[in-house]
Amino acid sequence: MEQQHSKELPKLAFVYLDHVLRFFNASNFKAWPTKIESVVYHWGNDKNRFINEVKQKKIDVLIGNIPATAYETFREISRALPQVKFIPSLDAQFANKSKENVTNFCKKYQLPIPKTDVFYDKKSALRCLENCQYPKIIKKSYGPSNYGGYFVHKVDSFQQAKLLLAEKRYYPVYVQEFVPMVADIRIMLVGHKPVCAFWRRPPEGEWLTNTSQGGAIDYANVPKAALDIAVKASKASNAEYWACDIAQGYDGKFRILECATAFAAFPYIRDWIGQYIIWTLSPQTASKPNIPLYNWEELGKLKSQLLRTMRHITFGEYTASEDCADNLALLTKEQYQMLPVELRAFEEWPSECWNFQDNYKSTTYQGEVENGQALVNDSGLEDNESIALEEKTLPFIELDESQLNDFFQSIKGIGKQLYLSIITTLGVQGTLEALNLHPNHFLQVKNLKEKKLDTIVLHWQQTVAVEYANDERKYF
Ligand SMILES: Nc1ncnc2c1ncn2[C@@H]1O[C@H](COP(=O)(O)OP(=O)(O)O)[C@@H](O)[C@H]1O
Ligand SMILES: [Mg+2]
C-alpha cells in the first residue's frame, strides 16, 4: 500500500524556520499516507544549504508560512527550485511580508481599504503629514506583527506625527486615514470558503481591537458583506488558506485592515487546512472535507476542552434539518464553495518590481540623512529571526521570578540594576503584564526609554514567546 502510494503521490515536506512558530505539524496531516519530511531554514547564510537539502530529499511540495524577514530570501529559493510547489505559493504569501504589500495587493484587486499612503522618503512623508487632516494612523509596515497593535499609532497633529517618526524611524512611512469603527471582523478561509469568523470589539473608549489589547471576541451575526469581501480577497490571493481583518466603520462601510496566510489559527482550523491540502494534492484518493458554514457562533458556545477535541472531528456533508426552514445548504452549495487554487506558471509579484522597501533603499535612499539620522529602520532590514503569527497565538506567558531574572539577564544592555528597578517599579505580575500585554508600562521605570523598551519587546518575541507559544495546550 505504502509502496503504491509513494509512486503516485508527491513527496511532502514542512518548511520550518529556526525560532519561528510552526503553523503545521504532522498531526494536521494525519490522513496523508506517506511520511512528511521537514526542512529547516537556519537563517543567515543558509539559502544554498536549504536548496540542496530540498533537492537531496527529492521534495515535491513544501508546506508552510514564511515569515516577513525571510520572505525575499524564499522568493529566491523558490526560483532556484522551479519543480517544487510551495503551499501557499510565494505570491500567495506576498501580503505576509508587510502592510505595504497588503495595501498594494488590495489596490490591485480593488478591495476596500482605508485610504493609505506609503512613503519611501522622509521629506515627502513630512510634506504630506504637514498638510493633511488628523487624526491619522501610522504603522510599522514590515516585520512580525504579533504584538497586536504595538506598532500601530494614532497621531492627532503634525507635531505628534513628526515626533513619532523621529523616535521610531519606521521605513517606509505607512500612513493611513483613521477609521472610526464599530469593531473589526476576523475571517478565516480554507479554499476560499469562510470556516470561522468573529468580531473583535475594542474596549470602551478605545480604538485598538487586538485581543492582546483587551479587544473582546464574539460571533454575533457576522455580516455577509464582510464574508464576501474576504472571499474576494482569498480568491485574488490564490491562497489555500487565508485570513482577513475587516473593519466596519461607523459610516457602515467595510474596509480590509489586514489579510495574509499567516494568522493565528485554532488547532482544528489547521487540521481542516491539512485535510483540504491533502484533497487538492490527491483528489483521486482523498475526499474533499466538509466544513460546515456558519459554525462559528456555535463554536463560540463550546467549552475550550471541547474545542481542543474538535481537531479530531471531521464533518459529513451538510443537509438542512426538516424542522428548521433554513437555506444554509443552498448558501453552502452555491455561494461559499471550497475550491482548489488555480495552478499558475508565472510570478505575480516578482521582487524586482514589488520589493520597494529594499529596491528603493539600494538605489535612491542610501545615505540620505536628515537631522543626523537616516530614516531607515535598522532592525527591519536584516535577515533576522521573527515570528510569523499574530497576537492570539501568543498566550499570556507566566514566568516565575527566577525565569524573569534569566530573561532580562540574557538581554544585552539590561544590567542587574535596571532589572531591579523594573521589578521594584512594576512587581513580578506587573512585569509579566507589561511583557505580555502592555509593553508601554515599562516606560514607568526610571532610566528605561523607548530604545530599551523596543529591545525588550523584540527579545521577548524572539525567544520566550516563541518557545511557549509552541505549546499547543496553551492555545485557549
Ligand atoms: N486605519 C485605521 N483606523 C482605525 N483603527 C485602525 C486602523 N488600522 C488599524 N486600526 C486598529 O489597530 C489594530 C491593529 O492594526 P493592524 O494593522 O491590524 O496591525 P497589527 O499588525 O498590529 O495587528 C486593528 O485591529 C484596529 O483595531
Ligand atoms: Mg491586526
Explain what the structure shows:
Helix 2 packs across helix 3 and helix 15 crosses helix 16. This protein has helices spanning 2-8, 47-56, 71-80, 94-97, 99-108, 122-130, 158-168, 224-237, 267-281, 296-301, 304-309, 328-334, 351-354, 356-365, 401-409, 416-436, 450-462, 464-469; strands spanning 12-17, 37-41, 61-63, 85-87, 116-119, 136-139, 152-155, 173-177, 181-190, 193-201, 216-218, 241-249, 254-260. It contains 18 helices and 13 strands. It is of the alpha+beta class and 476 residues long. Helix 3 (71-80) links the parallel strand 3 (61-63) and strand 4 (85-87). The radius of gyration is 23 Å and the shape is globular.
What are the defining features of this structure?
single chain; 476 residues; alpha+beta; 5-stranded antiparallel sheet; 15% strand; disordered C terminus; binds adenosine-5'-diphosphate; binds magnesium ion
Structural class: alpha+beta
- Shape by Cα distribution: globular
Low-confidence runs of at least 5 consecutive residues: 363-394, 469-476
Mean pLDDT: 83
The fraction of residues in strands falls at: 15-25%
Bound compounds, each kind once, are: adenosine-5'-diphosphate, magnesium ion
Strand order of the largest sheet: 11-10-9-12-13
* Total strand segments: 13
How far the N terminus sits from the C terminus, by CA atoms, comes to 38 Å
Instruction: From the alpha carbons, calculate the radius of gyration and give it in angstroms.
Output: 23 Å
